[in-house]
Amino acid sequence: MKISQASEETGLSAYTLRYYEKLGFIEPTKDSTGYRNYSYDDLELLNWIACLKKSGMTLDSIKRYVQVERYSDSAAQVELLDMHLEKLFQQQEDIKHYIEVTQNKLRTLRSNIDH
Amino acid sequence: MKISQASEETGLSAYTLRYYEKLGFIEPTKDSTGYRNYSYDDLELLNWIACLKKSGMTLDSIKRYVQVERYSDSAAQVELLDMHLEKLFQQQEDIKHYIEVTQNKLRTLRSNIDH
DNA sequence: TAAAACCTTCGAGCATACTCTAACGCAAGA
DNA sequence: TCTTGCGTTAGAGTATGCTCGAAGGTTTTA
After folding, report:
1. CB B38 within 8 A of CB B18
2. Distance separating alpha carbons of residues A36 and A6, to the nearest angstrom
3. Under a CB-based contact definition with an 8 Å cutoff, are residues B6 and B43 in contact?
4. pLDDT tens, A4-45?
5. pLDDT-derived band at B28, boundaries 50, 70, 90
6. Among A43, A46, A61, A106, which one is most buried in terms of CB atoms within 10 A?
7. In order of start, what are the domains of chain B with their CATH numbers?
8. Cβ within 7 Å of strand C: which of A 16-75?
9. From the DSSP assignment, how many helices (H) and strands (E) are in chain A?
10. What separation in angstroms does the CA of A91 have from each of A94, B36, B106?
11. Chain B within 8 Å of A83 (Cβ-Cβ)?
């Protein structure tokens, strides 16, 4: 599959796909004329990377993750994902707190308007 | 209170405090020699800004918020905070999803290691 | 076969949010 | 008084993560 279709499938721009390649996340094969060819494995990895990215993992951490995945080092993968999971739980707590604070502020503002 | 203490109280660097001032978030008074003097109102606003920031609001949106707060436009404040709250709920949903996905991945990895 | 649409590379540019440097003035302690 | 430390400014630099432009080759479609 060519870059524009891979872009559509993953929701990442063609620019981003080339950028991620430069960072070493993926290595699509190239045909005789130099066009990239994305496999379904590539797509799966890209979708997973997009998920990690959207959940706040930096590209630098993703790089480490991709490296241990490439070495099939499952133990190291588990370690990194456990750390990531911890951060997600922390984020969950933080957001709960921010929601409360914002709701309090809103209550105060609304009572100022009403009375 | 001088900038270094304001920095300590808010957890924002002195650089950041000056930067936020340049963006128009706060306007601490200046003494005869040009030193900034932060009031408790300034601190309160800075802490609230830090909270909005940490919960994902961009400085551009914070600017808008600060502006309507300055005009005591409570209705506009409510509108902005309602939108922010919506985003927080969305984030909460997203994170819930990312936690599930990560836990699934971890389960798969762990079963690969164990067997 | 020719135009339109797609692909390539490389390097530059952009947006956000700081973060620091340089060169200087003021303040407090030994 | 002298040194150390904190403050000031304007403007430059950094980090992250893209995003784009230029110049050119390839593929598809009318």
Report:
1. no
2. 10
3. yes
4. 999 999 999 999 999 999 999 999 999 999 999 999 999 999
5. very high
6. A46
7. 3-84 (1.10.1660.10)
8. 18, 30, 34-36
9. 5, 2
10. 5, 34, 19
11. no
